[in-house]
Write a structure and sequence with these properties.
155 residues; mainly alpha; Four Helix Bundle (Hemerythrin (Met), subunit A); 6 helices; globular
Length: 155
């Protein structure tokens, strides 16, 4: 069984790996739209931050004994809309600000996770799925794509 503390350690490692994937990009590189001509490191980072906030809110609700998803909200049914909304939050911001927002999102997510009772964690349980969706697997997925792009570009 995976505990909350173990998940936080895995999340921290995945976060550091993602940060290393975007480390050293200058502003034009961070802004370049290389993924389907619409997204780059800027949009990817902003959308990860958005999911950390959204699913971190779910952890907060779980800590109060509530369902993680607010009434009337569907996280899974329209992922493209959610992603586009989160990515749009990057417009007009420098990459340092976007990375700072990611850092704050991580801190808030971990704070919420620490409030969730330990019995809510475990293989297949909702808290574990929120960790995977918001961070651990999400960071790994996007770090790999950014590294592939950097390799193609020689960055």
């Amino acid at each position: 069984m995976t505990t909350g503390d173990e998940l936080i350690q895995q999340l921290d490692a995945a976060y550091q790996d993602f940060r290393s994937a975007v480390e050293g990009l200058d502003e034009p590189q961070f802004d370049k739209k290389w993924l389907d001509g619409q997204w780059g490191a800027r949009e990817i980072t902003a959308h990860i931050t958005g999911w950390l906030g959204q699913l971190g809110g779910g952890l907060e609700r779980m800590s109060r004994g509530e369902k993680p998803q607010p009434e009337g909200v569907d996280w899974t049914g329209d992922g493209d809309r959610w992603n586009a909304t989160f990515a749009s939050h990057a417009k007009g911001k420098k990459h340092a600000q976007i990375l700072e927002e990611l850092e704050h999102g991580m801190d808030a997510f971990k704070k919420a996770a620490m409030m969730v009772p330990e019995d809510r964690y475990g293989d297949g349980k909702t808290a574990n799925r929120l960790f995977a969706g918001a961070g651990i697997e999400h960071f790994a997925e996007h770090a790999a794509v950014i590294r592939l792009w950097r390799g193609r570009e020689g960055i």
